Amino acid sequence: MSDLSTRSWTRWQDWGEVVLGVVVALTPLWFDTSTGAMWTMVILGALVALDGLASLAMPGMVYAEWFQMVLGALLFISPWVLTYTDMTGAAWTSWIGGALIVLAGAAALPAATSAHGRTAGQH
C-alpha cells in the first residue's frame, strides 16, 4: 500500500464516497420520489457523505469503511423495501449509487487497515 493512501484527505475512494453521498442526498431535487424514498435517499446520502469525510480526516478508521459498505447495501435494497422501484430515476440512483458505495468502501478497506496498522503503535 502506498504511503499516500494512509495520509489524511488523499484517498480517492473516500472522496468518491463523499461525492456519491451528496449526489444521492440531492437526487430528490431532480427525480420524482415518494416521501419514504426521499427521506431514505437524503438520510443515507448524508450519512455516506459524512462518513466519507470522517474517513478522509482519519484514514485509519477501518470500521468506517465497513459502515460505508452497510450504508451502500441499504441504499441498494431500499427501492424494493420501500417500494419505489417504479420511480425510475430514484430507483436507479439507489441501485447504482449503492453498488458504487459498496465498491468504494471495499476498495478503501485495505488502505484503512494499513493506516490503522501504522497508527496503532502510536497510542
From TrEMBL:
Pfam families on file: SPW
InterPro entries membership: SPW (IPR005530)
Keyword Repressor: no
Organism this protein belongs to: Tamaricihabitans halophyticus
UniProt entry keywords in alphabetical sequence: Membrane, Transmembrane, Transmembrane helix
Name of this chain's protein: SPW repeat-containing protein
Residues spanning the membrane: 12-31, 66-84, 90-109
Domain SPW repeat-containing integral membrane: 12-106
Domain of life: Bacteria
